[in-house]
Amino acid sequence: MTKSQLIEAVSERINLPKKRAEDIVNAVFDTMADALVENRRIEVRGFGSFSIREYDARMGRNPRTNEAVEVDAKKSIHFKVGKELRERVADVEN
Description:
The chain is an alpha+beta fold. It has 2 domains: 1-38; 41-94, HU Protein, Chain A (Irregular). Helix content is 45%, strand content 29%. The protein contains 3 helices and 5 strands; from the N terminus they run ααβββββα.
């Protein structure tokens, strides 16, 4: 699902004009992004949680040349799926 499809679905589900639904979706995403930039955890009960994971610098290997390469420290967004969503998806598979 793309962002525009999400806006369309929100618009239809709660009977709002598309522009208003777009404003809501953008506000939610902007607020979530701001929280992650501030290194705050986001938890949406039943859906999942987002957090920042920090990785130390390390020595890696170039798979083509097998040469050792230094990999810089970095931060990455981690998503952990919630129990209700995990069970809902598992039910669809069966």
